[in-house]
Write a sequence for this structure.
């Protein structure tokens, strides 16, 4: 690395390139040859680092422009579509305003009304979907909105110049207005569903900095940190911040106080990536019997840690959030209601009653076996939340389909607990229609608890 670059010379060449790219101004062009020459690395090393930067969202490769530095989007802003994504989705051509393609849009407006009526709906950051109406194109651009022209009509040169001047794209698609609106609406809806899924990176962003140790620290240093923090498990990182091991109270048993941690720590510990679902991290913790997970990037550099309590709190919070989009499971369960029937004085039986919709049919015209399996699994999930007061992940599912269930028939699903344990629970779920028992499932679940 050249002097005065401000890049830590102790970093690897790969890390130096990423650090140099991060320092570039947004909009700067990047080439493999220039990076390789300025940092004294091979073009192969530069190419790999630039690709990693693209994966990390720091750069973008654009047709006819090349690779440029872009503003890294947080997960929150990534929920929104950009004009570029819309252009790719509708197989559109850009006629001016290319520099604004990476701007996000918060809504789209269909220009199927008179301009005077349309005005109230168009504002900055929106997208006007309209045909060959130049007056509408101009007004949208002047209000800070992008334009999607349907039917393949190309805008005039004046409109292209205005789009370039305002850095707002005009996208031309051969599809009709209804088709492109359906495409965009579906994409926005899918992203609303993704917003419901809490990732490990969401927890790390809110958590305190991780308490760490170095391989050259002693067992005495570990014990002092354990007393100070009240914790008993810490990641051990090397001089580059990469996870080298995990030090726990169990590792310290019978070890001399002056022994260095690299001799007693647990090597190759289980770690987790930031972009996995919190539920997956919970399953890993439960199955492996661990209470703390280091969160690392693809080079095993420590980003933070998550505890089992962090994960459980996040799952409870996510479960209370308002529904912003329906998944397939939501759609299948829609219309089912919970009933309970007291049997004797001690036992309370829960049942779930609903109707089989035409969309639930399989290839033979009766209710799909996959739908029935999904419904029985969801019935078990809701039941165990009532009787067990906790969440779980499914470990095994055995289904029995005794006879076909007809479309439009009413069914009753009855879950029963065979065994409720602290770690594992076993349930059975029966499905009955007007003719009696039709299907049954035996489900083993793994409890996610503190």
């Amino acid at each position: 690395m050249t002097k005065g670059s401000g890049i830590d010379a102790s970093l690897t060449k790969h890390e130096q390139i990423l650090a140099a790219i991060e320092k570039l101004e947004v909009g700067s062009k990047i080439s493999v040859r220039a990076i390789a020459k300025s940092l004294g690395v091979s073009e192969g090393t530069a190419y790999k680092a630039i690709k990693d930067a693209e994966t990390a969202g720091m750069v973008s490769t654009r047709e006819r422009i090349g690779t440029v530095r872009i503003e890294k989007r947080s997960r929150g802003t990534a929920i929104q579509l950009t004009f570029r994504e819309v252009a790719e989705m509708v197989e559109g051509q850009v006629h001016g305003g290319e520099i604004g393609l990476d701007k996000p849009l918060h809504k789209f407006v269909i220009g199927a009304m008179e301009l005077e009526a349309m005005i109230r709906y168009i504002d900055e950051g929106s997208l006007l979907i309209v045909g060959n109406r130049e007056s509408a194109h101009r007004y949208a651009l002047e209000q800070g909105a992008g334009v999607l022209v349907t039917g393949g009509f190309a805008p005039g040169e004046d409109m292209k110049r205005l789009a370039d001047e305002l850095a707002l794209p005009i996208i031309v698609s051969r599809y009709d207005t209804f088709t492109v609106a359906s495409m965009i609406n579906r994409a926005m809806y899918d992203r609303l569903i993704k917003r419901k899924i809490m990732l490990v990176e969401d927890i790390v962003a809110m958590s305190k900095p991780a308490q760490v140790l170095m391989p050259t620290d002693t067992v005495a240093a570990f014990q002092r940190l354990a007393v100070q923090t009240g914790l008993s498990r810490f990641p051990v990182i090397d001089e580059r911040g990469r996870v080298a091991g995990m030090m726990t109270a169990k590792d310290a048993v019978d070890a001399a106080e002056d022994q260095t941690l690299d001799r007693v720590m647990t090597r190759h510990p289980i770690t987790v990536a930031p972009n996995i679902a919190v539920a997956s991290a919970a399953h890993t913790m439960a199955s492996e019997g661990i209470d703390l997970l280091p969160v690392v990037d693809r080079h095993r550099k420590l980003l933070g840690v998550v505890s089992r309590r962090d994960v459980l709190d996040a799952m409870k919070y996510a479960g209370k959030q308002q529904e912003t989009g329906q998944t397939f499971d939501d759609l299948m369960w829609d219309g089912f209601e919970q009933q309970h029937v007291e049997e004797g004085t001690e036992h309370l039986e829960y049942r779930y009653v609903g109707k089989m919709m035409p969309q639930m049919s399989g290839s033979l015209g009766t209710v799909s076996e996959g739908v029935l399996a999904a419904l029985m699994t969801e019935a078990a999930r809701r039941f165990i939340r009532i009787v067990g007061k906790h969440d779980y992940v499914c470990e095994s599912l055995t289904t029995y389909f005794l006879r076909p269930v007809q479309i439009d028939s009413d069914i009753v699903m009855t879950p029963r607990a065979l065994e409720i344990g602290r770690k594992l629970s076993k349930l059975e779920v029966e499905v009955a229609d007007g003719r009696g028992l039709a299907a049954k499932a035996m489900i083993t679940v793994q409890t996610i608890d503190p």
Notes: Residues 177-196 form the longest helix (20 residues). The two ends are 48 Å apart (CA to CA).
